[in-house]
Every structure is written in C-alpha cells, then in structure tokens.
Amino acid sequence: MAKVKKAPRPRAEPPKGFRDYFGAEVTERAEMLGRITEVYRRYGFEALESSAVETVEALGKFLPDVDRPNEGVFAWQEADEDGAGDWLALRYDLTAPLARVYAQHRNDLPTPYRRFAMGPVWRNEKPGPGRFRQFYQCDADTVGAPSVAADAEICAMLADVLEDVGIRRGDYLIRVNNRKVLNGVLEAMGLEDDAQKDAVLRTIDKFDKVGKAGVRELLGAGRKDQSGAFIDGVGLMPEQAEPVVAFLTSKGTDSAATLANLRAAVGASDTGAAGVDELSEIADLLASQGYGPERIVIDPSVVRGLGYYTGPVFEAELTFEITDEKGRPRQFGSVAGGGRYDDLVKRFTGQAVPATGVSIGVDRLLAALHATGRVGGQAEGPVVVTVMERARMAEYQAMVAELRRAGIRAEVYLGNPKNFGNQLKYADRRGSPAAVIAGSEEFERGVVQIKDLILGARIAENATLEEWKERPSQVEVPRAELVARVREIVASSDREGS
Amino acid sequence: MAKVKKAPRPRAEPPKGFRDYFGAEVTERAEMLGRITEVYRRYGFEALESSAVETVEALGKFLPDVDRPNEGVFAWQEADEDGAGDWLALRYDLTAPLARVYAQHRNDLPTPYRRFAMGPVWRNEKPGPGRFRQFYQCDADTVGAPSVAADAEICAMLADVLEDVGIRRGDYLIRVNNRKVLNGVLEAMGLEDDAQKDAVLRTIDKFDKVGKAGVRELLGAGRKDQSGAFIDGVGLMPEQAEPVVAFLTSKGTDSAATLANLRAAVGASDTGAAGVDELSEIADLLASQGYGPERIVIDPSVVRGLGYYTGPVFEAELTFEITDEKGRPRQFGSVAGGGRYDDLVKRFTGQAVPATGVSIGVDRLLAALHATGRVGGQAEGPVVVTVMERARMAEYQAMVAELRRAGIRAEVYLGNPKNFGNQLKYADRRGSPAAVIAGSEEFERGVVQIKDLILGARIAENATLEEWKERPSQVEVPRAELVARVREIVASSDREGS
Lengths: 498, 498
Prior knowledge:
Two copies of one chain form a homodimer.
Chain A: E1 21-22, H1 24-42, E2 46-49, E3 53-55, H2 56-59, E4 75-80, E5 83-90, H3 95-105, E6 113-122, E7 134-143, H4 149-165, E8 172-178, H5 179-188, H6 194-204, H7 207-219, E9 222-224, E10 230-232, H8 238-248, H9 255-266, H10 270-288, E11 296-298, E12 312-323, E13 329-341, H11 346-349, E14 355-360, H12 362-371, E15 383-385, H13 393-405, E16 410-412, H14 420-429, E17 434-437, H15 440-445, E18 447-452, H16 453-461, H17 465-470, E19 474-478, H18 482-497
Parallel strand pairs in A: 2-6, 8-11, 15-16, 15-17
Antiparallel strand pairs in A: 3-5, 4-5, 6-7, 7-14, 8-12, 9-10, 12-13, 13-14, 17-18, 18-19
Helix pairs in contact in A: 1-4, 4-10, 5-10, 6-7, 7-8, 8-9, 9-10
C-alpha cells in the first residue's frame, strides 16, 4: 500500500487580485450605498438584485467558441448528467444582467422600467496596484423611455445622490454631451467611410489627454508622443478636421452660447440638429427643476464613452483638489458616468428597446468622501469592560448589557484576563473610546473606574497641564452612574474625532 | 468563403437554480440586515467582507485530486502563463473564508476577534423548489475566546437581533445544549468504538423526527419507517440506550432541574460534568443580563449540529404558528443556529484556535417577518405625475422635484403619453398611492387633479356611499397645495396598508 502523503498546509491568502474588507471599510460603504438607495427610490427606481452567475450565452461577447470562454470573465462548464452542460460565468457588470432580466420579464415589468442595482462584479483581468478582480458597481437605468426627459432625470438624480452622500454643491459638476451631435459633425465633415469614422472617434477619446493641438495632429498627418514614438494620423486635411475641433471646444459662457456653437459645428446635418435640440431640451428640463449650470452643464468636451453610447452622455466630476501620490495638487476627477444606449435587449428579442443609465464608481466616491473628511475619523470602537476577577464575569456582562441598552457599543474582554496590560492593549487596538475597570475593591465600594482612552492618548501626546487637571483621563464614579458617564465620554470623543 | 451562420438568440433566463430579486424583496432584506448590523456592532462585532472567490486549497474539503474539483462548489482553473494555474471556487459558506482571513491576519487582528459577515454563498447542488444555488448567509463569530462567556454573549445577541428585526418576545425561544454533555453520556454508556459513537450521533440527529420511542428502536434492533422500509439499528442493549434517552429528555421545569437531570445522565464522566458546568455558567451569565428562560433556555433536546460542534450548541426557534401548504397549523420553526467549534484555523497554522458563532437563516427570518406582518403590505410605489401635454414636460418635472424634496417618492410618466389609460395602468402596476393629472385647462386655472389610487381601488371594491362622499378618490387642489395634499394621501394609504 502506498504511503499516504500528508497534505501540506494551505496558504492563507485570497486568490491573486482579490481582497478582503474590514470593519469601517464595509460599514462606510454600506452606509453610502444606503443613502444612494434612498435617492434612487425617491426618484421611483426599484431595486433589482440579479444572480451573480449568468450563462455565458446570456452575457454575450464571451461565446464558447474556444475551449474555455474565460476571456475577461470567470467561466466554467456545468457538469450535466451527460457530461457537458452550459457554460456559466460571473457577471462582469450590471448592465448585461439587466438586459437578460428585462428580456425575460418584459411582459410583467412596468414600462418604462426604472431599476437600480448594487453589488460586486468580477473581471478576469491581470490584477495590478489598486486594480482588483472583484469590485462594486452601483447603477441606475431607465428602460423603455425614448424621451430625453429620462436622461435629464438621471442627471438630476445623480446630482441629488452626490449631495446626499456628502459632496457639497460647488464641489461637483455633471457635464452632458450628445453622441448625435458628434454624428452630425462627422456628417458635416463628409466622412462616409466607417473605418475613417471609427478612427475619428478613437482620436476624440484622446482629447482629454492630448488637447486641441494634439487632436489636430492626430486627425491629420500624425503625432509624436511623449516617449518619442510616432502615432499615425487619420490623414484628414486641416480644414476637414476643423468641425471636430470646433465641436470639442464649443463650450461657451452659458448654455445658449454653447448650443449656438454646436449648431454651427453640425452645419446642415439633421442628426446633428436633433442632437443639439436634445441637449437644449435637457438644459430646459433641468433648469425647470432648479438644476442650473453650476451643477449640470452642457459641455461638448465630455468624450468618455461617446463611442459606446447612442444619445446623451454624462459624466460627474469632483472639482475640489486633492494631493496626488507625488504631492502635487490635482482635481479629484470623475466618479460617475453614463448615457443612452438604444439596443439593450435586441440580442434576446430582436426588438430595439431604448435605455439610459448611470454607473457610480463606488470605490472612487467613497475615497472622495474620505478625502473631504465626510466619512471616517470617528472613534468607532466599542467600550471595553475589562475583567479583573474571572468570578465576577456575570457582573461585567450586566455592565455591558446596560451600556448596549443605552445604544452604546460595548463588550466584555473575553480573552485570557490574567495580564491586565493585554486588556488595555486590546482596547487600544479596537479604537475604544473608554475602558471600564472594576476589581474587588471597586465592587465592595459600589464604584467603577472609567478610563477615557481618547483623552488619555491625547494627553500622552500634547495636552496642557490645565487640560489634564480639568478632565483627568480616569475617573471613579458610582456604579449607578456608569452609563451616564460613559455616554458623556463617548459623545465628547465623537465630537473630537469628527 | 464559408457563409457566416447567424448565431441563434440567447435564452433570456438565469442558470438553473439561480434567481433574481425585485424591488421590495431586495430592500426589505437590506433593511433587515441593516438592523442586524446595528445589533452586531452594539455588541462590539466588526464587519468582514471577504472575497467571493477563494482558492480551492484555502476552502479545503475540495482538493483538486480529480480533474475538476467542483463537488459541491463552483470551481474553475486559472489560466496561467504556463497554462494551468490555481483552482478557484466560489465560497460555499462564510466560515471557511473566516478561517482563511483569521489565519492570514492573526497578528494584526485583535484577539478575541469578533466579526460579522453577510452576503451570498454558492452551492453547486441540484436545485429544487425553494432550493437555490445562491443564497444569503448572515454570521457572527468570536474567534480566540475559549470561555463560555463568548457563547452566552452570542445567545444574548441573537435574542436582541430577533427582537430588533421585529420578532416579539414570547414568539421566539433560543435553546442551548452542549456537545460535551453528550460526550459524557457516551462515556457513561461505555462506548469506545468510534464507529458506534458515530452511529449513536446519527441516531440522535433523528430525535426531532422519530421521538423517544424511535430513538430507542434505532439504538437497539432497528425500526420500520413510515414507508415500511426497515432501518438497521445500532445494536445496543436496551439498558445501554437509556443514558442517551435520559439525556435527550432531561429538560426539567427550570434550569436547575434540567441541570440536575443532566448530571445524573453523565454519571461519573469528567467531560460530561464539565459540559454541565458550562451550561450552568451560561444560564447564570444570561440571567445576570436579564435573559431568562422565557427567551434563552437550557434544552438537551436540541440536537441539530451536535455532531459538528465541540461545546455549546444553540438554536433559535420561532414559536408562533403559521399555516403550512396543506392548511394545517404548525410552528414556524428554526431561523438560526450555531455553536462552538475549536479548530477553526488549524488547517492553516497547525494551532487550534477556539471559536463560537451563529448563522442566521436570512430567507427564513425574512419569511417569518412577512408571516407576522412586520414587513411588506405598505403602499411602496411612487406617486406618478401623468403627462397630458408633452410640451409641458418641464412643468411636470418641476412637480416631481417638489414632491421629492418633500421626501415623497415621485416620478413623471416617461413612456409614450398618447394613451392616457396606459398611464393609469402603469401607476396601478407600480402600486402608486396617487396620480397627479394636469392638462391645459388645469394649467390655465392654476390647479392640479390628484387621484387617490389606493382609496379608488377600495371604493371600486367595497366602499359605502358615505365614504365616497366624505373622501372622493379624485380632488382638485391649487397647484401650490400639491405637495401638502399628496403628503396627506400618502400618509393615509401607509396607515391603511401597514
């Protein structure tokens, strides 16, 4: 009999590109998503939580024409009775599942169908710093509403979301553009060849990076990039490139000026005129609800996603400055984007159904709230009731029960109580605002000691003697006053922390 | 050139055994989990959200010794540069990831580590009615606390959770047992053979179903089941089976009586005595915090999981009656269970680390809240502002903006407004409490019509003429009073619905 080899110990780590979230990372995100949910619901949107797993067939793009269709997605084949079953995959976004759900239930769902969805998605990509293979998305879409009133509504809702999670008015700007205007510009240029149109679209996508002069070069003969490499151009004549440049730089001092510039840029194109009309209608609808250009603005320089969307396109940017990793100030940048895409369920049903929606970058928005100090920083830990005498455990438990009934996070130290220093180190590691201490002497005298740990830490650092005298970091109070005194300490440390 | 075959349309359905959750199904669960989070945090527990994907190696049990290790889990192999990479799998519970996370971060995490986790898990099992391959779990565990004070704390927390989500005191009972007591009973019986011990454990697991007489038969010669099939017995002598029966039926009129019965059942076994002491200590700790036997009770008839756990075992049952699918009354039954398991991370580190925890059946608890009417039933839909004149869209949008600013869910009808009946059908399908109607005549006179849809539906069914006169289902109000009047209607329909 072969000797059974003892299995080596497994590595205690998640797969490459995956990570865990601890404590405040989880609860802060949940709170933010809860606030977003409230806004979405106020706008009449309904929650949808689709399954994390879809058939590869329903997801599309990743058809099983190769042995393993895991290009970009995590996929596997079901083991059927006969052996080979369906290929399944983890969803890579929340839009593909929406298409499947709407196609499946279109006769039972209200039309228009406003839905929001929040949850993890998975990408089978090479992980990198800050680039994970599982991350959150948070989407809201309106399906079956062809009118731009639906697009305007999404923009207004996005503004409300940003303000309700804690971004101040003035610290964000939602910029709106329209793919139809760009199509009009391409018509005005007389471009007929699809390959050439695509090349122009790709060039426009680089406007953010290379600017006006760069776009001119790339539409013409070509351009040398920073590394010295030469990028071939589209090969248009300088005059021919002008409508594109005019389009990208048509933002005026107000909506009326911008719209006039755009009308000029699209020339005689009907598509272009329709696009400008749509932008004009969006601006009017938003103004009537009180969303002026200080919050939502028509801005033809928004190009991200213009290739993908079919009508209005929008992007939310945070305009306040943060310090980048090299210590230089820069704008925080984009936290959400979306637009209109008009063939959501065609793959399933053969019918084109219009849809428009927005996707919020959950991690980016949470990082922004941290950067502005709107989340984080508070003393979040529980009050720790230390254990001086094992035999008194029931009495310590009664203390935490009282504290909890008063709404205060509290726990008894449940490790080995022998080394008292370890108990205080534990409280420190938990970020506890206070520790409660009671030994036999305290029990006899009917009192407890309360150690103010936040104040204690501050005093250890930099408090003046006056502060120390005025509010010593450890006080003795009658047992009956435990809850009242702890509440005071927790309240004051919350004030200082926030 | 070969003709490209057009791909058939994909089926619009989720994979077998998966489902989607809509609207209130999502938000009600989220609210319940939010309330549970509050209780967990009040007890000092910290959130942990581990990755949904783990290496098969870290999950254990499912080692890649066969071609595809997807027995019970959804698994796939990473495509490395060299071809074959790690086997990855979706987590099948929240305990295996806790073990991996604690082993990985044990030097940085506080000890004891109290953590809670909520989220979907996946099982690659044959789906059936009401049996899905993705479902929610909601766990709380304390790692690194050997004392039964940790177990008592989990029981108290479970009671608080049930009451805070809306189960009334008296409608639930948490029953506590202890594996060590059972081990003592097995010792007292003189059982040495592990196979025989396992057979006794399996028999005990059936106590719920077969009762005292059934257990006696199954421990002895065997038993004919309802279908007439004969189940082989363990083959013990009748006297030898008595300690097990005594153990299972040792619940007395109060804790003291139960504990005395248990002491008799374990005879001279030290392990058994230690187990009884632990139960006694748990009862004392809970009593000192005000959790009496009307909420948490020592009950040796709790056998579910006794084979898996190593110390205290607990189960929460809802004691109110519901009507089963055949119209017969029955107790709602179990909604949560847990216990102590003392080798959580040994696979990773070689060291035994004690742990105790509870898992709440999310779907079961939510169903219970529905059964008691604590969730569901309210008018949840948005107020729908109908569109009589397309050109007035900005004015309709201004109305919903006002309603939303007052905290009222509201939306403009964004479908094709041509057929007004469709707009009211849409409002009906959304469960709207009210529809707002304004055409050119109303705009000229500065008024709006408000249709009370909940009242309208009631009147259509069964209202008296007096009710109709007193509160007609459609009223005309000045435009300036829109918000105030809609608020009244929404408030009254909430009252009636809840």
